[in-house]
TrEMBL record:
<dbReference type="InterPro" id="IPR036291">
    <property type="entry name" value="NAD(P)-bd_dom_sf"/>
</dbReference>
<dbReference type="InterPro" id="IPR022002">
    <property type="entry name" value="ChsH2_Znr"/>
</dbReference>
<dbReference type="InterPro" id="IPR002347">
    <property type="entry name" value="SDR_fam"/>
</dbReference>
<dbReference type="Pfam" id="PF00106">
    <property type="entry name" value="adh_short"/>
</dbReference>
<dbReference type="InterPro" id="IPR002878">
    <property type="entry name" value="ChsH2_C"/>
</dbReference>
<dbReference type="InterPro" id="IPR012340">
    <property type="entry name" value="NA-bd_OB-fold"/>
</dbReference>
<feature type="domain" description="ChsH2 C-terminal OB-fold">
    <location>
        <begin position="77"/>
        <end position="132"/>
    </location>
</feature>
<dbReference type="Pfam" id="PF12172">
    <property type="entry name" value="zf-ChsH2"/>
</dbReference>
<dbReference type="Pfam" id="PF01796">
    <property type="entry name" value="OB_ChsH2_C"/>
</dbReference>
<feature type="domain" description="ChsH2 rubredoxin-like zinc ribbon">
    <location>
        <begin position="39"/>
        <end position="71"/>
    </location>
</feature>
<protein>
    <submittedName>
        <fullName>SDR family NAD(P)-dependent oxidoreductase</fullName>
    </submittedName>
</protein>
<dbReference type="InterPro" id="IPR052513">
    <property type="entry name" value="Thioester_dehydratase-like"/>
</dbReference>
Length: 414
């Protein structure tokens, strides 16, 4: 196997060089293809499986070609396979992909039956056993990639694989809430994952910041003023660092217990000001800067990530208005995802259950440690997973939501 050298930090950008345009992505697949995309967005390798004859199907279709059954749901599939042919694509008629090639593709015979076309990792050769993954590319289009069956040196630095992720290595990251334990843990986790620098936003700088001395002593962390409820604060920070920020991670969350009738309107407004309008300010101000650098080479701007409360999926009336703000927050992210996809920027969410903090004291276990959420955020960035669920509560809520949202609504009522 070819000896690999670690990915080098990017050179300083030539300010006189013309920035490459991020062309509009190609059209979306069929509805069956979108089902495959939904699984890929959550990092699941899933194929259609006929409930009548048990055949695994590819490409996505509306009926089984073997028995004509229309009951062919997507289910997790075995990931093993063997490469039977390969080639290199150097020219494409799609403008969106012209500046992103060349890339290796091949045909893979899956252990579960179908022969598929997939991107090939640089350490994969014809005849090799491979492990398949499904991910979304920069255009939001689902694709398969064949990885080596066993880990190889510097495996995640393959350029083709890196374009399917938002890996923080050598990238500069803004974390919006440095006052929270989550924000501080995340800053350290990002540096450990190879981030070149972490800008850690802190609102109300006149207030004491627990752990400030330790943060300032850590190389790679810059504490910056940022208040998501203040448009001027967001604009000023974007003017200072917007052009050199590659990933934005929003960890701000205004949490207060209280039902819809029990919580004051003023307190609910504070929640929406941070959780919804704060996210909108962040997107409106930093979004254009991210889009402007989305086609900027190997260490381009790649993602806006949000740590989203899982009660965005269904209202938990003990935290009724916070749940309402979380639902609005999720809707903002969905709309933003459609806008940012046009330029090749990922909009990602890590859904989290209640954290072990002051505002969830009355909530019984299991609760999440901030370090666990930070690790999940870094993992989602490194693996390119658009939506992930961290912790037992979030995973259980999501499973129940997929089964029947109306039943979940009743289950969360107390």
């Amino acid at each position: 196997m070819t000896e690999r050298t670690p990915l080098a930090p990017p050179p300083r950008k030539d300010p006189t060089a013309v920035t490459r345009l991020a062309h509009r992505p190609p059209g979306m697949p069929s509805r069956a293809g979108l089902c495959f995309a939904a699984h890929a967005a959550r990092g699941t390798f899933a194929l259609q499986e006929c409930t009548e004859c048990a055949a695994r199907l590819w490409p996505p279709r509306d009926a089984c070609p073997h028995c004509l059954s229309a009951d062919i749901p997507f289910t997790p599939a075995p990931v093993g396979g063997e490469v039977i042919a390969q080639t290199t694509v150097r020219v494409t008629h799609e403008l969106f992909y012209r500046d992103r090639g060349p890339w290796r593709v091949g045909t893979v015979k899956l252990d579960c039956g179908p022969v598929v076309t997939a991107n090939l990792h640089r350490d994969v050769a014809t005849g090799a056993r491979v492990r398949m993954i499904a991910r979304l590319d920069l255009a939001g289009t689902p694709l398969m990639m064949a990885l080596p069956e066993q880990e190889t040196p510097l495996m995640d630095e393959d350029p083709a694989l890196r374009t399917l992720t938002a890996h923080p290595r050598h990238r500069r990251v803004l974390v919006t809430d440095g006052r929270s334990a989550l924000g501080q843990e995340l800053a350290r986790a990002l540096l450990k994952a190879g981030a070149a620098k972490v800008f850690l936003g802190v609102a109300e700088g006149w207030k004491p910041l627990p752990g400030r001395d330790r943060l300032e002593a850590e190389a790679g962390i810059d504490i910056v003023p940022l208040d998501l409820t203040d448009t001027r604060s967001v604009v000023d920070l974007a003017g200072a660092i917007g052009g050199k920020t590659d990933i934005v991670v929003n960890t701000a969350d205004h949490v207060r217990p209280g039902s819809v009738m029990g919580q004051s309107v003023a307190l609910a407004q504070e929640a929406f000001e941070t959780n919804v309008f704060g996210l909108q300010r962040l997107a409106q101000v930093f979004g254009p800067a991210l889009l402007g650098r989305a086609n900027d080479g190997l260490n381009n701007a790649v993602a806006l990530m949000d740590v989203t409360p899982v009660q965005a999926l269904s209202n938990w009336n003990v935290y009724g208005m916070h749940s309402a703000s979380a639902a609005a927050r999720l809707s903002v992210l969905q709309g933003l995802r459609a806008e940012m996809r046009e330029g090749g920027i990922r909009v990602m969410s890590v859904f989290a259950g209640p954290m072990d903090d002051d505002w969830h004291q009355a909530v019984p276990p299991p609760k999440l440690a901030p370090r666990a959420v930070a690790a999940a955020v870094v993992a989602a960035l490194c693996e390119g997973i658009e939506e992930s669920f961290v912790g037992d509560v979030a995973q259980d809520v999501f499973a129940r939501f997929r089964a029947d949202p109306k039943v979940l609504e009743r289950e969360l009522q107390r």
